[in-house]
Amino acid sequence: MSQTRFVGKPIARIDALEKALGKTRFMSDLVFPNMLWGKVLRAAYPHARICRIDTSRSEQLPGVRCVLTHRHVMGLNGFGIVKPDQPVLCHDKVRYVGDAVALVAAETESIAEEALGLIQVDYDPLPVVEDPEEALSEYAPKVHEQGNLLLRTKLQKGDVKQGFTEADVTLEQRYSTQLFEHAFLETEGGIGIYDEESGVITVYCGSQYAFRDQLQIARALDWDPKKIRVCSSPVGGAFGAKDEITIQIYLALLAYYTRCPVKIVLSREESFISHVKRHPMRLDVRLGATKVGELKALDVRILSDTGAYASLGGPVLNLALEGAPGPYRIPHTHLLGRAVYTNNGMSGACRGFGATQSCFAMEITLDMMAEQLRIDPIELRLKNVLRRNDLSAIDHLIFTSVGIEETLKIARDSELWRTRDIRKRDFQPPIFYGVGVASEMQALGLGKGIPDFAGVSIELDRDGSFLLRQGCIEIGQGNLVCFLQMAAEVLQCDIERMRLTHGDTFASPDSGSVTASKSIYLVGNALYLAAKTLLQELERFASETIGEPMRYQECELVGPSRRIPLHELAQTAHSQGRQLKGEGHFVHPTSDKDYGDGLPHCLYSFITQVASVVVDAETGMVKVHDVLSIPDCGRAINPQGVEGQCEGGVVMGMSYALLEKVELQHGRFLTDNFSTYTLPTAADAPLTNKTVIVESMEPTNPFGAKGMAEPPNVAICPAILNAIYDAIGVRIFDIPVTPEKLLAEIERQRKI
């Protein structure tokens, strides 16, 4: 595919203009006739037993159509991607302040809000479990009856004790990361509609996997999934938080009981307290190397606070462990992780999915090792970098493409890195300049043992255009134009000749979840198969119709004596009632090893990022000056899209490093709005934010593509912290690096 017409070209997104003009209708924008408003009563305590729920006063309020409690949940009163341990509506206990206790539907939003205040719930408060280490004590209150340990995972390779014996230098350090908010612009919102005539419930609600929503709704309602339609695209941002069920089941229940369309749109405060966050983790890292810089041993212990329910806390922990060694050859490893229940809100999927936390710890430790050994940080990484067909640090074969070495060499040769010491001369105390680097490998796909697939169909319409049916949701990532680019490449037609469906369970095949940076890879493989099948079908039908062998060529069927334009063939097929269609189904390849619970993966994207910072040692302020992102995404289907992912990911990762933290006190949110939660603005963005793409050409994808949604927001955090150290000689191991925290550490070191 070296010579291509569409793949690899910076083609504008098909949804760009409507979004820029504010014309895009998201699920929370929809309005239907006779629509009611729904509201959710949340828990009054972060941990309490429910003694009584009295809805009588609320039901009598004029304008109220229904009030629902756990008694109205017809099926399983629980949901969760891995483990359905979160109640749809709580009946005996609440475990965090976002728990739902009752639902109301009323004629106006204000009446629904008033009705919530009339529901009386008697609670018996319980001790709040705040600290994950204390949660594991035998005397700790139990968040769940079976105990507070969600998952314990251990991975190892070689003999870590022997590895540290072979090491000349050993470093140990504890790191900690914060609870982090996704801060998407569109809060959870949508509409549920029950059509009594067809018996179909339709739920319009932004999410990341409409087909899994369909199954979870059906399970809660004890309903036939074929009678539940979920439309979930487009979405006004997600970053992982809308992978889990949010309000979909509530919409379905209210629509069923009222027989009217019911709309719910969460306020920012309600969204903040109820949806999942990025996991806070404590990471203890011990790294050993020889005096010439050969990594010999790594021991990592992770304690993850998953909050009140499982959600994806187990897989996040596993990916944090898998990513902890980074893209490096290490012969001896011991990686141990525990995910723990607390009453600290709820954590789940967030961009980077655990690798964000472990990369932060490993990449700072590597820089510390480089300083100890007096080796350039990039040279240390190059000395130990993984290559294709190596065994990983968790002892599985890396048989897919690996471009990390090239990313490091580009970083090493970049002007930003080469001139770092020269540029320091342009600054005078108390202003200091520094440059840092970090690398990462991001697992793509869901991992060993977890169903991971995509289905696609492509139809020839009667006017000679193509309809691409695929179920992936548009959450702002720009995949839709990439799907069309890949399909147009195979079908040899202009993109304008193609249409596509997305995120509708009644109009599309199941193309998998929009998670794990995998949709370009999976859908790309499936649509390639569908397009090839369609071309065979077109040639077969044309040959039957004309009576001579015909072959497809740029929207024409060409034979020895005739050429037929595609639109004529389409009309002929339509007149005969013949549907010309190709279907493709692709299952993600898996690793040669099986460690259970989705471990390990076999496909990875890689990135190296270089960042420069300017630090004011008097105020503690840090300004990220320049960033260079060097991603290995396989073939870049749309380079402009990859650049966009890198530019946005850099700002998100920078904010993780320096600004954002969800504050809780005794299980209650102190930051529940953008007025109290610090977010970056355009003024905080780096002065330059450049991307150089490395294309390692993935052999298991017909276009050579992998994925690049997550890595740009992962390695940038430790790159910034390494740059801060390069500037002022101060290391921070607990993020975010606020001015107060940095000044305190500067003062502490002055006293040493």
Question: Could you give the topology of this structure?
Answer:
Elements: H1 16-20, E1 36-42, E2 48-54, H2 56-59, E3 64-68, E4 93-94, E5 100-106, H3 109-118, E6 120-125, H4 132-135, E7 149-157, H5 160-166, E8 169-176, E9 189-195, E10 200-205, H6 210-221, E11 228-231, H7 248-258, E12 262-265, H8 268-274, E13 281-289, E14 295-307, H9 313-323, E15 332-341, H10 355-373, H11 377-384, H12 404-413, H13 415-418, H14 420-423, E16 431-444, E17 453-460, E18 466-470, H15 479-491, E19 498-501, H16 519-546, E20 551-552, E21 556-558, E22 563-565, H17 566-575, E23 581-587, E24 603-616, E25 622-632, H18 639-658, E26 664-665, E27 668-669, E28 688-691, H19 716-728, H20 739-751
Parallel strand pairs: 1-12, 10-11, 14-15, 18-19, 25-28
Antiparallel strand pairs: 1-5, 2-4, 2-6, 3-5, 7-15, 8-13, 9-10, 9-12, 13-14, 16-24, 17-18, 17-23, 20-21, 21-22, 24-25, 26-27
**CATH topology name of the largest domain:** Aldehyde Oxidoreductase, domain 4
Question: What is the total domain count?
Answer: 3
The total count of strands amounts to: 28
CATH-wise, what's the superfamily of the largest domain?
Aldehyde oxidase/xanthine dehydrogenase, molybdopterin binding domain
Structural class: alpha+beta
Question: How many individual helices?
Answer: 20
CATH class (first level) name of the largest domain: Alpha Beta
What gyration radius follows from the Cα positions, in whole Å?
27 Å
Poorly predicted sequence stretches spanning 5 or more consecutive residues: none
For the biggest sheet, the summary is: 7 strands, mixed
Which range does the strand content fall in?
15-25%
Integer average pLDDT: 97
In the CATH classification, which architecture of the largest domain applies? 2-Layer Sandwich
Helix content: 25-40%
Distance between the termini: 60 Å
Global morphology: globular
Task: Give the strand order of the largest sheet, numbering strands 1, 2, ... along the chain.
Answer: 3-5-1-12-9-10-11
